[in-house]
Design goal:
Layout lengths: L11 H24 L2 H26 L8 H13 L9 H20 L1 H21 L2 H42 L1
Helix pairs in contact: 1-2, 1-6, 3-4, 3-6, 4-6, 5-6
Amino acid sequence: MLVPGRLWQWGTGSRAVGAGLAVGVFFGAFALVESGAWAAAVVVFVVLGLLYGIRVPRRMNRLWPEAKDMSRADRAAVVRATRRGEPVADPGLAPAVLAYAAALRRAAEEDRLRRWIVLVVTLLAIALAVYDTLTGTTGEMISSWLVVVLCVADLLWWPRRRAVLLARSDRAVASVRRLG
């Protein structure tokens, strides 16, 4: 669900590269700030970039397999309408809106089951940040507290964002059902 809607405009390979690069650069920068070592940043960039570059498009394809039979423009139109809660312009895409909305629901349910992991990681991140503040370098301290901020933001922001996205998805489904 967290994957930006614009990734659906791309093919599977482009989605892999886009997701992998974003994650690799983000966490590689954290590794660089914490360790000050370019080698560590490169390793993190490559490993996480490859892992997420493989995982994200596979999950996207698993959750919404109907997307592979659609053109990029149609996929983008369905995703845009569903995420905004608007009726889809082409009535022929109505079944795709229903399928994508169902995929968002499945993704939300899968993510809801994993929320306890974010809580545990947040608690561990706080403990590590306190430890790094007392004993670590400035880079370790900064990166540790940045991780805490991101974890807390995830705990507070993401549930509300998910609820808004699902409500909009429900509006798009309702508009499709009114048409048919």
